[in-house]
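example protein:
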Amino acid sequence: MRVDLHCHSTASDGTDTPAELVRAAAAAGLDVVALTDHDTTRGYAEAIAALPAGLTLVTGAELSCRIDGISMHMLAYLFDPEEPELLAERELVRDDRVPRARAMVEQLRDLGVPVTWEQVARIAGDGSVGRPHVATALVELGVVRSVDEAFTADWLADGGRAYVPKHETDPFEAIRLVKAAGGVTVFAHPGAGKRGRTVPERAIAEMAAAGLDGIEVDHMDHDPETRARLRGLARELGLLTTGSSDYHGSRKTCVLGEYTTDPEVYGEITRRATGAFPVPGTGGA
């Protein structure tokens, strides 16, 4: 069984529609794929309608969080998408995305980059606008060669010249909200140092004590030493370990199924969840 628990669609900052994503997942030989768009569940209906036979969909989201001034992402799986408190928090984060992106455009223009809001809005389309869309605009303008190159101190990395903060949820509150909605929480790419400052292990231990279920270990932004360190930490704290592609379509170089989650861990995630259940494909359109 091949399980990829971290993928994005055009509902946030991926380039595949939810329908294209699930079809691509089946073509890549996956048995289970999770749709984890940033702070939104808008892609669920389209993904379910198109779900091929033989592929199971795990519904989820990647929640924007911040602790001690450090941005982090919390993967939330199989929660009730209509639970009022968690829904309200997701909407609060999403509502801050447009003014934040507009402010980044102005910062870039002050730096001499001829980017426009219209360009960024076109790239984002119907998705929840974010830094990857601004980064794509920089690629289009020839300012950087890739989206990854835009996430540096020169441009959009945390604390970078064009960085603008947004509303982000306290991770302990995120854990509480997801648990109350019947979901399961996994700290996404906790050792991705090239994205900026990483959360210290003491804070991860505190999150584990507060109910965090797992950490994402096998990820393109983790080198072998980081993966080994995180596995040891997970054993020490009693956390599940997952592996995922963090697929964004053509926006990033990662491919579906590049890293996967152990089927036994996937089974434990589904056992812990009470807010929603995996959706088996029946041969969608």
About this structure: The chain has a mean pLDDT of 95. The longest helix spans residues 97-110. The CA atoms of residues 220 and 245 lie 7 Å apart.
